[in-house]
# Entry
Amino acid sequence: MARKRYIQAINEALHEEMARDPKVILFGEDVELAIMGDARGLLDKFGRDRIRNTPICEATLTGMAVGASAAGYRVILHMMFSNFIYTGFDAIANQMAKLRLMTGGQATMPITIIAAYGGGGSNAAQHSDSGYPALVNLGGLNVVMPATPADAKGLLKTAIRGNNPTFFLEAIGRGGEQGEVPDGDYTVPFGKATVAREGKDVTIIALGSMLKPALSAAGKLQAQGIEAEVVDPRTIVPMDEEGLLRSVRKTGRVVVVDEARDRCSVASHIAAVMADVGFSALKAPVKRVTVPNVCMPYAPNSERLMIPSDERIAKVAAELLRSKAA
# Structure
């Protein structure tokens, strides 16, 4: 096992899967230049028959992905930023998510769409959304949000080998972060949450990019005598609801941290599930730490205030322990 950067782990998965299966193709915006770093070296190794730059027209790209996958290819579509999903949404919502059902299983959609989400890079409002709640609501799509290099590699390989469309969402600003990555060929299953830190007093459910500040918050809470358990869902469709509930039944308190805007966020859905199915285990109300319902600003100091921080997470968790219901 070696320490690798997040973006390096993604790059390795792409190289390995394209070498493994000649039907895997990659196209998208600036993939030949690999400005995000994740597609570096693929053009030199696999050539223009399998690696294609495309115009900046996401409605065309998503339609191409549907057609190529129906014709027998395993498609990797790189859309750069998750905001661009909005402009390609027709083929995503009306074709990609529905054709397997509407054809009675005759058409499979082995499509992996890669896009970077979230703030932290001062990319301004049109390049900083965490728009995955819209995807979660569609049905017929997988949505994965790896927080570590190991999960990035393992989940991407699972996505590419699968027969259903999957959105693989990279966390902006985390590409250089390092972590242990298992040697050899390995995959990470969808729908299996992982406990990143054990604790007994409060559960912090951290989605994707929020794992790092959640772990930092757990360290701050420990200094106050509070043992926080940090759980990473890893995939939000499918979601390991039972794995999340298992932790909540252990601690009785839960804080959900999500970089999406608060209204109709994935945190809202998780909170609903915890309050519905896990109500008898709760010792205090379910709390959410999210982004305010505004566009992400360009200015770095304003942007930092929008994104959930370890201080905000720790404050909310500590207040749960001090509440009358606790």
User: Anything to note?
Assistant: The radius of gyration is 20 Å. The chain has two domains: 2-181, 194-322. The chain is about 40% helix and 20% strand.
